[in-house]
């Protein structure tokens, strides 16, 4: 296994499976923030301390298996090129912060990329488990198991009253962030989402863009996650999020039905126009491509478009990001060249899918 394996394919192996409610919930993620006892937290630690944390993780876990996951491989940020790190961000395997700001950062990855453990990001460890579709409980079980597995070798910073100690006070307690990536095009088209978002925030949840905090909601993809980690159990946090996500699924389905009943011709026109642009455009930027891929994905889910796999659209959403485009080109590309290559890649990939069917 090598870095090349993790950056050569847009779709992680775990993404090729379909999960519950996968038409609307693309993925579920459980993330645990943990720090090691007797070490300064990453935000104030020295480079030498950060190096010792990486060394411990490498000694105890690199090359090891957990259950059916593994062997794990450690990738160190200072040994990677900027574009290689960017690709890992685009695949949601590391955060932009780990790629850009961390000193002596690293990531421990399972072979199927379903488990990603960031080292020396905001906290010493960020344990992340990813599942296709709506599988928060399954993610929690796996993350808890990995957490226990790590704690057999490393000692966590923990307080009996406060719980797990973290760099940011908002993570103190369970250190748990549960989130889902949702495709909500109908709620956006019917202008209902702007009314729903304030209510979600009042429930202690937050809605972010495709790459988390500070990112844009490209292609009608929204990340819904908890904000409160203290005073609730891990299971309660997950169940609270599950309840809201189930409501959003119901409302998105209702909005899709409304569009079919009240403006089917306009909806079909939008979907086919987007497909036409993707199939024939000679230049297209990230934002436009994401929006049109969202339209086509909606068309597939509503059976308006046939002969195209929804997984292909998931693949293209990642494959057409700047990091992957430059990786395949083998060079740093200007914005115009990226737009040209993005359009060509989409055309060729859609043609391949149509020819296959």
Automatic annotation (TrEMBL):
Catalytic activity: L-arginyl-[protein] + ATP = N(omega)-phospho-L-arginyl-[protein] + ADP + H(+)
Annotated positions binding ATP: 27-31, 92, 126, 177-181, 208-213
GO biological process: phosphocreatine biosynthetic process
Alphabetical list of InterPro entries matching this protein: Arg_Kinase, ATP-guanido_PTrfase, ATP-guanido_PTrfase_AS, ATP-guanido_PTrfase_cat, Gln_synth/guanido_kin_cat_dom
Activity regulation description: Appears to be allosterically activated by the binding of pArg-containing polypeptides to the pArg-binding pocket localized in the C-terminal domain of McsB.
Gene: mcsB
Similarity remark: Belongs to the ATP:guanido phosphotransferase family.
Domain Phosphagen kinase C-terminal: residue ranges: 24-255
PANTHER family per UniProt: ARGININE KINASE 1-RELATED, ARGININE OR CREATINE KINASE
HAMAP family membership: Prot_Arg_kinase
Keywords: Allosteric enzyme, ATP-binding, Kinase, Nucleotide-binding, Transferase
Example of a GO MF term: protein arginine kinase activity
Protein's UniProt name: Protein-arginine kinase
Short motif (RDXXRA motif of the pArg binding pocket involved in allosteric regulation): ranges: 338-343
Job of this protein: Catalyzes the specific phosphorylation of arginine residues in a large number of proteins. Is part of the bacterial stress response system. Protein arginine phosphorylation has a physiologically important role and is involved in the regulation of many critical cellular processes, such as protein homeostasis, motility, competence, and stringent and stress responses, by regulating gene expression and protein activity.
Cited Pfam families: ATP-gua_Ptrans
EC number: 2.7.14.1
GO cellular component term of the entry, any: extracellular space
Domain of life the protein comes from: Bacteria
């Amino acid at each position: 296994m090598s870095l090349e394996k993790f950056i050569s394919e847009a779709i992680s192996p775990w993404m090729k499976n379909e999960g519950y409610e996968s038409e609307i919930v693309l993925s579920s993620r459980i993330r645990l923030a943990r720090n090691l006892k007797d070490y300064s937290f990453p935000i104030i630690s020295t480079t030498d301390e950060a190096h010792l944390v990486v060394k411990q993780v490498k000694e105890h876990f690199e090359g090891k298996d957990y259950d059916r996951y593994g062997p794990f491989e450690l990738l160190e940020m200072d040994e990677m090129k900027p574009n290689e790190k960017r690709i890992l961000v685009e695949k949601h395997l590391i955060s932009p912060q780990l790629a850009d700001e961390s000193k002596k950062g690293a990531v421990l990855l399972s072979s199927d990329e379903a488990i990603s453990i960031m080292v020396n990001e905001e906290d010493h460890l960020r344990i992340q488990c990813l599942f296709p579709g709506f599988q928060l409980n399954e993610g929690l079980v796996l993350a808890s198991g990995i957490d226990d597995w790590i704690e057999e070798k490393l000692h966590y910073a923990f307080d009996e009253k406060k719980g797990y100690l973290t760099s940011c006070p908002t993570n103190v307690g369970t250190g748990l962030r549960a989130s889902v990536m949702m495709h909500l095009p109908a709620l956006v088209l019917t202008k209902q989402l702007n009314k729903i978002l304030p209510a979600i925030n009042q429930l202690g949840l937050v809605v972010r863009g495709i790459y988390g905090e500070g990112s844009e909601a490209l292609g009608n993809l929204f990340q819904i996650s908890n904000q409160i980690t203290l005073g609730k159990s891990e299971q309660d946090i997950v169940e609270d999020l599950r309840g809201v996500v189930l409501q959003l699924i119901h409302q998105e389905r209702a909005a899709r039905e409304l569009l079919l009943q009240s403006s089917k011709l306009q909806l079909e026109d939008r979907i086919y126009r987007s497909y036409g642009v993707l199939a024939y455009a000679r230049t297209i930027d990230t934002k436009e491509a994401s929006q049109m891929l969202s339209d086509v994905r909606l068309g597939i889910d509503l059976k308006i478009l046939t002969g195209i796999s929804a997984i292909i659209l998931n693949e293209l959403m990642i494959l057409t990001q700047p990091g992957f485009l430059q990786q395949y080109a083998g060079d740093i590309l200007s914005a115009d060249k990226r737009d040209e290559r993005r359009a060509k890649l989409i055309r060729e990939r859609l043609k391949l899918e149509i020819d296959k069917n």
